[in-house]
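Researcher: Please translate sequence to structure tokens.
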Amino acid sequence: MEQKEPFGSLATKRLKIGDLVLWKNYRCDKLGIIIDFDIIMIGGRPVSVARIVSADGSFGQADVFAINLKVISEAPIEE
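Model: Translation complete:
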């Protein structure tokens, strides 16, 4: 069987660790910083998620689908 890309992998390519991101969660906006990426199985299909820590203290840590994230500020590029 052909191995498919994880759902949301294209969205993950535009994100990087350290980016400040925004997403909606139950009608309220959440703000956080990406600390890691992972692929989890949901319904038998691989899905790309970003592990995020709160930027405003409203939560500790969360795994969010990569396709739900909007970049507010990019992390500086280190050379």
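Researcher: Any highlights?
Model: Strands lie at 20-25, 28-42, 45-54, 61-65, 70-73.
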